[in-house]
Amino acid sequence: MALLRHFLISLFTIIIIISFVACNSNLQEDPLITTYVDDSPSNDDADTLLFKNFINQNTNNILRFDATSRSLEIVNVNDYGAKGNGYTDDTQAFKKAWEVVCSSGEAIFVVPEDNNYLLKPIRFSGPCKSNITVQISGSLEASDDRSDYSEDQRHWLIFHNVQKLLVNGGGTINGKGSIWWKNSCKRNKKKPCKDAPTALTFDNCEDLIVENLKIENAQQIHVSFQDSINVKASDLNVSSPEDSPNTDGIHVTNTQNIKISSSIIGTGDDCISIVHGSKNVEATNITCGPGHGISIGSLGAGKSKEFVSEVTVNGAKISGTKNGVRIKTWPGGSGSATNIKFLNIEMDNVTNPIIIDQNYCDKKKKPCKKSDSAVQISNVLYQNIIGKSASDVAVKFDCSEKFPCKEIALENIDLQYDEGEDAKALCNSVELFYTGHVTPRCYS
Ligand SMILES: *[C@@H]1O[C@H](CO)[C@@H](O)[C@H](O)[C@H]1NC(C)=O
Ligand SMILES: *[C@@H]1O[C@H](CO)[C@@H](O)[C@H](O)[C@H]1NC(C)=O
Ligand SMILES: *[C@@H]1O[C@H](CO)[C@@H](O)[C@H](O)[C@H]1NC(C)=O
Ligand SMILES: *[C@@H]1O[C@H](CO)[C@@H](O)[C@H](O)[C@H]1NC(C)=O
Q: Source organism's superkingdom (predicted)?
């Protein structure tokens, strides 16, 4: 099968090259657009799909190289010694394959389907010679021997300093987190509070696309985008048990221009968390729950000065979560969270559907003290938010007395308490504007 596929791919490549050389010398489309075509999944069987992807990649390759350059290199981890049997350590094979991909011209790093690759922590570092596609169709499984993480306790798989990277393939990334959850101080009060690894980290990446992957049972955070710029993440399924501690779904930190879309996230912590240094963040068509909802912050922990701005969540279904859309900041911090929009959101069985908490503190770590400073929250729009609250307080604005929340606008809000009673709004130190039907409202 693999051989046949290879042959067909080569054949098609040649045909395509010939047709390009013969009849097309001025097809100079924007390479970014042609590279990152949206191969939306169809009902074709997986082999056909894979094949189509390869053809697509080959075609793109030719467009980019104007039909004169070498062909796309396909680097299959199995050719570098990976076994994919679920118990042999495939770490070295993946590292070798990455070295090859990263130093090649256009190349695809292929993790074939129907295999389970057992992996210790790996750092996929750039910069690489050219654009890279990482096509994960099989399963990646984390080593659950914690001593394997002694060099770097914070990461399992990390892409560091890679530009123009596309990661896709429909496969699964499994952090095998249960050993870490058991040892978390949130589960076991006698254990020290230590960080566990993030399953998949993108650090210092630029022009990144991550799509069509399943990420499950992370040791701690599932996917983290940090210090990156121009990111598209879509069609991600992120899941872990509701009682798994600190397992944020998608975490965004110090990243600008990021769009997260069409993803289904249910974990033990925030579905999406957006923290310091993030700007121009858009989340659309998100299904969230169980977990703690979509959160901006926490910001300002340890008296830090932190900023988040231009965040839009547009189109989300949030159900069975502790919070719906939340902004949380620690007393004693400074900086700001501003220009934030929560639009078109459906809530079901959500304990705190709309919440701003400026008196947040993780009580297990530090006592919550009153303070003279706070992260300034301003210009937040809540529009078209409907559904059911699991508690009688559906809207809660608990802002700082010294730094009240400013320009908080509510438009077309209808949140009911599950039990058929009217829901309430609790408001402290907040400047509110109402438009259209808004229920519940603060009366003060
Ligand atoms: C990689 O892609 C970018 C944008 O799609 C393009 O500008 C660049 O030329 C490509 N690099 C190579 C080596 O093909
Ligand atoms: C994500 O979940 C949806 C709905 O359950 C499913 O159709 C899709 O194939 C899943 N995608 C991946 C990459 O697992
Ligand atoms: C929204 O996301 C779901 C789940 O990922 C997907 O099946 C659906 O096609 C998306 N809808 C749009 C309009 O993108
Ligand atoms: C509501 O959500 C909680 C989790 O927060 C879940 O345990 C419970 O079963 C849900 N109830 C309904 C009626 O869906």
A: Eukaryota
